[in-house]
Predict the 3D structure of the following.
Amino acid sequence: MDAIHRIPGCDVVSLCDRELLMSEQLGERFGISECFSDPEEMLRRLSPDVVHITTPPQSHYSLAAQCLESGSNVYLEKPFTIAAAETESLIDRAESCDLKITVGHNYLFTLEMLEMRRLVTNGFLGGQPIHLESYWSYDLGDTSYVMPMLGNRDHWVRRLPGQLFHNLISHGIAKLAQFLDTELTEIVATASQSELLRSLGAHEVLDELRVLLRDRNGTTALFCFSTQIKGLNQLRLYGPAGSITADIITGSLVRNESRAYKSYLTYFIPPLKNAREHLRNARLNLANFVRRRLYQDFGMKELIERFYNSIQKGDPLPIPYREIILTARVMDAIFAQIYPER
């Protein structure tokens, strides 16, 4: 709601929740009078241009299909669906209805991620990325989220094919998908349970994941999800002439040119260049804060605004369908390896 209100010319016309009281409480906070418990009634009465679906993933497919058939474009929170087949079906349906659909991978649109893509496009790496690394951490210290899930086998997170991973890793996988070819030749996934999670009693829930990928062009990628590493949310790209690291936590981007220095200069110049990069990031973040461009939901606001512009002005979709489908396929492959019985 906050992100949408930052976009000029947008109005939230209605809210819908299975529990009417929930939508009415949110409506009271934001001054929205049209509240519903039945999505069919909301769609029939108001015909919204866009519907944002923020429900648990098991309902994404049916609700999105219902909205598309009613003539509304759809913004689906992550994960897009619970299986790649559903992802492809929804995208086909959106195209057949001449409507648009996207997924809430808002971390692709933070300031540092936008700058990373610009640098890659302008050739900073000296060619296409050779190797990618995506790190995504999640703190299990938030017991308000973890304990209800661990204490209830019927919790919606526990019913997902990938359980805890399924609701959290698509952000990190999507960062890789934008730089990988659609045809992957290798996916190797391993998972385990941390001592902390084991002590909380849910023995079948895994929370440490490592994935190795390779596409048909030979580009390799590593994805690391961890509940034990604190505060690590990064994407690293390595190319023939340099590397780039985008850090989501600190909102910073570090550029590194691959070049050799004579003799002992190797020990002095690269550290000084790294120090200059961090100082540059501090200055940029301060300037963006003063200009009111640095706030917590910038990536979400940017993604939503670009999606709206693709509908209103015919701009390109913010996230190509190819990347949404590839992310879903990678997740399917991961869960098939680590939870084969599911």
Q: What stands out?
A: The chain has 13 helices and twelve strands.
